[in-house]
Amino acid sequence: MSTRTDALVLVPGGRYVIGTDEPWLPADGEGPARAVELKPFRIGPCAVTVAEFGTFVDATGFVTDAEQAGWSFVFASEVDDGALIVGRAAEAPWWLGVEGASWRDALDTNPDHPVVHVSWNDAEAYCRWRGARLPTEAEWEAAASGVVPGRTFPWGEELTPGGTHLCNVWQGSFPREDTGEDGFRGRAPVDAFPPNDFGLYNMVGNVWEWCADALGRTSSPSSCCAPASEGEERVKKGGSYLCHSSYCARYRIQARTGSSPDSSTGNVGFRIAR
């Protein structure tokens, strides 16, 4: 791996535009576009890796929410034969609750992949250990957009400019077949594609990233910055390797969704900020 998350990237303070006046999924609260003033901050060039999270666990003895619960959600095609299925997501039947699934599944095989099966609570604990925090949604969007505020993708307006794949998302027919035209079926290393002009890798695709904020699905100008109450859904940004235009197309910078702070799946990770 060519980068480390302890070499944080400086994002200048100033006026940034977040959200959009042309939302693809209005119910998610993608709009409206609004200006925010941000102080300078630093953000990890990559999502936290399996190896880095393992170092944290070794140092602290931390036990994730998924490990305490005894299961986590795994995408159906990634479930091993013989796995014990303890549940299924009602609105997304391709997500199976698998007994024993946790971040440790990739520890020996994919240490440079983003850590997954980590909840918002787990991400917060790691950040505290690092003397850091999760980025806010506004900071995340500003960082992902780079020097061109408001663009759809970290590199511009086209998903595959000139036919070039610049992120790890689903190609083919979701959820049956991922053709892997971008070079990956499943998760990719945290620095698998070229960085944006701030030097940040995989800000869209690969894995969703937890942010500090409560989700909120209103279109108020302050909806990006609401404090979270206990148990309230937290923001996730960036989409994942499971996003496809026929299903959600949430690999756009302005796209957003959320989950409860104790939930975990195989396509959600995080990066740190200060």
Quick tags:
13 strands, four-stranded mixed sheet, three-stranded antiparallel sheet, paralog of FGE (formylglycine-generating enzyme), 4 helices
DSSP E strands, number: 13
Mean pLDDT: 92
Name the poorly predicted regions. Answer: 218-226
Question: Rg from C-alpha positions?
Answer: 17 Å
Order of helical and strand elements: EEEEHHEEEHHEEEEEE
- Give the CATH architecture: Alpha-Beta Complex
Please outline the major beta sheet.
Answer: 4 strands, mixed
Spatial gap, N to C terminus: 22 Å
CATH C-level = Alpha Beta
Strand order of the largest sheet: 12-11-10-13
Strand fraction equals 15-25%
Considering the protein shown, what is the CATH homologous superfamily?
paralog of FGE (formylglycine-generating enzyme)
Structure report:
Helix content is about 15%, strand content about 20%. The chain is of the alpha+beta class. The protein has a single domain, classed as Alpha-Beta Complex (paralog of FGE (formylglycine-generating enzyme)). It has a 4-stranded mixed sheet with strand order 12-11-10-13. A 3-stranded antiparallel sheet has the order 5-7-6. Strands 1-4 form a two-stranded antiparallel ribbon.
Summarize the structure.
Helix content is 13%, strand content 18%. It contains four helices and 13 strands. The strands form five sheets. It has a four-stranded mixed β-sheet. A three-stranded antiparallel β-sheet has the order 5-7-6.
